[in-house]
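All the exercises in this workshop are built on plain-text protein records. An example says more than a description, so a record of this kind follows:
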Amino acid sequence: MRTETLDRSAGGMWPWLGQRVTAVVILVTIMVHLVLTHFVAIGQLSYDNIGERLAMTAVLVNDILLLLAVTFHALNGVRMVVLDWGFKSTGARRGLAVFLWVVGILGVVYGTWALWVWVS
């Protein structure tokens, strides 16, 4: 009988599952984005027209969900590459996690603000 424990530096089950779930969310929200942009809100592309499109609740919610999924998916991918590269110490891994969370939160806040400007 094997008594070895799994290597916890491999990344973890929850980030792995999050990567798969966000991949599906990204695919679905990109398809919804394309349908809403090219088939539902047809019109001349202008500053005012884009503002009207983003004022639609479905477009705004879809774009914010897409922003959240892409941010998590991308930063989790960067995390996994860096961990594979050789961050074995707990301090380095924790520092990387904090740095990526801060970057992710700032990116989502900035992206949401940029979308919200079109609405207001």
